Amino acid sequence: MRVKAPGNKPTGGSSNGNLRERLAAVECERDQLREEVESFKARQRQLEETQAQVRDRIAWALDSLQNILEGKG
Questions:
Q1: Which of 16, 58, 60, 62 is the 20 to 30 A CA-CA neighbour of 33?
Q2: Is 12 exposed, middle or buried, given 0-12, 13-18 or 19+ CB atoms closer than 10 A?
Q3: pLDDT tens-place string over residues 30-52
């Protein structure tokens, strides 16, 4: 008959509690990362919209300058 030495492994109850704590921490981290990803996606959309507006303004300015140059020629 084998007898386990005390302190080798935690009992099932404390092990489950530890696993639950770790799982809760990982789930919390996952949720925070999801929020960050959504925030980054929103920021990316905003930057893309701003870039499109700048591109349109530059194109308009170039067209206006071209029209002015053609009118003087």
A1: 16
A2: exposed
A3: 999 999 999 999 999 999 999 99
